[in-house]
Specification:
Among the domains are: 135 residues, 5 helical Cullin repeat like, CATH 1.20.1310.10; 113 residues, 5 helical Cullin repeat like (Up-down Bundle). It has 15 helices and 2 strands. It has a two-stranded antiparallel sheet.
């Protein structure tokens, strides 16, 4: 009755027991309890098997002591946070600082990243096993700070080696770890861009022994595509298509497509060679690829076209070659011609392709009229 009347110093039996325990005994034993708990957790981190139900019971008791004496139906986490979470997170920080420094002094960076990844997964599981859910954020933040942020320079320095050796699994692991901390990926994006640009320039140098005039367009375009395909796959797999790495890839490709050894004599060489390659594919020839293969090749050509800076030069060469194919009736396929114009329109807009479209439409109309005028046999 007194509880119902709002007497704040009067509690039900359960609440009274907790209040008495908190006021009379808790302050005398909490340090000893926490010392024992932290020791158990350290043993578990060291690989020993411990009674997790005991740890869970201790956590629940700390949470239950956070009762609201004004309302027995409410609880707060003040006691848990002050007497359990705070020393627990601090002990975690100390433990992983010592372990990470020792492990790195005895092992490679790639092995350390595996260790850090495993430790972070362990701490996620620890929250599920016996910690209060509210501890997840401070615990994981502390682990990320110690295990990743505390060793970023060493991790960053390993990036180039992994790129050189194409270690995609390790690159993904590095990406995943550094993604956890603010600005952790910034240096990698810059180094990735430089690496791709260098790879592109090197690929063109290998085929640049011939002059640009005698260089087969297919060889040139294939060299560009090979580099793009390799590192685009890397971005999609190891870096999960992250926007910053996509931007770095695009910047690097734009550089080596427009400014390489073949382009030294003239910046128009890339768009010209690309247009010539299109012509070789769309012109009648015994070497014409099958329709499905042609579609795939034309799609890949558009990948290179995206990076060409002087698209007007491409249009000029493409327009001349299209006119020759149409006038001389040497187009391999009207559908392929229309498809390529459609691709260019999608990439650059109606105005860019209006002349090409008009030429193609006029020639198609002329063909139809000629066919109609032919006398029947």
């Amino acid at each position: 009755r007194e509880i119902d009347e709002g007497r704040k110093t009067v509690h039900d039996v359960g609440t009274l027991a907790l209040v008495s325990w908190k006021d009379s005994l808790f302050s005398h034993v909490e340090r000893h309890v926490m010392a024992a708990v932290l020791q158990l957790i350290e043993r578990q981190r060291n690989g020993e098997s411990v009674e997790t139900s005991l740890l869970r019971n201790v956590v629940e008791s700390f949470v239950s002591l956070g009762l609201d004496e004004n309302d027995s139906k409410k609880t707060t986490l003040e006691v848990y946070r002050q007497y359990f979470e705070k020393p627990f997170v601090h002990a975690t920080e100390v433990y992983y600082k010592m372990e990470s420094e020792k492990f790195l002094s005895e092992n490679s960076v790639t092995e350390y990243m595996k260790k850090a990844e495993a430790r972070l997964a362990e701490e996620e599981s620890r929250v599920q096993m016996y910690l209060h859910v509210s501890t997840h954020k401070p615990l994981i933040h502390t682990c990320e700070t110690v295990l990743v942020k505390g060793h970023t320079e060493i991790i960053w320095d390993e990036f180039q080696n992994l790129l050189n050796q194409d270690k995609q699994e390790d690159l993904y692991r590095m990406f995943s770890l550094l993604l956890r901390i603010p600005e952790g990926l910034d240096p990698l994006r810059a180094r990735f861009e430089a690496h791709v640009r260098k790879a592109g320039l090197s690929a063109i140098e290998k085929i640049a022994d011939k002059s640009a005039e005698t260089l087969e367009p297919k060889i040139y375009v294939d060299a560009l595509l090979e580099v793009h395909e390799k590192y685009n796959d890397l971005v999609l797999t190891a870096f999960r298509g992250e926007a910053g790495f996509v931007a770095s890839l695009d910047k690097a490709c734009r550089e080596f497509v427009n400014r390489n050894k073949i382009c030294k004599s003239s910046t128009s060489k890339s768009p010209e060679l690309l247009a010539r390659y299109c012509d070789s594919l769309l012109r009648k020839s015994p070497k014409n690829p099958e329709e499905e293969d042609l579609e795939e090749i034309l799609n890949s050509i558009m990948t290179v076209f995206k990076y060409v800076e002087d698209k007007d030069v491409f249009q000029k060469f493409y327009s001349k070659m299209l006119a020759k194919r149409l006038v001389n009736d040497t187009s391999a396929s009207d559908d392929a011609e229309a498809g390529m114009i459609s691709r260019l329109k999608e990439a650059c807009g109606f105005e860019y392709t209006s002349k090409l479209q008009r030429m193609f439409t006029d020639m198609s109309l002329s063909k139809e009229l000629n066919e109609q005028d032919e006398p029947e046999p």
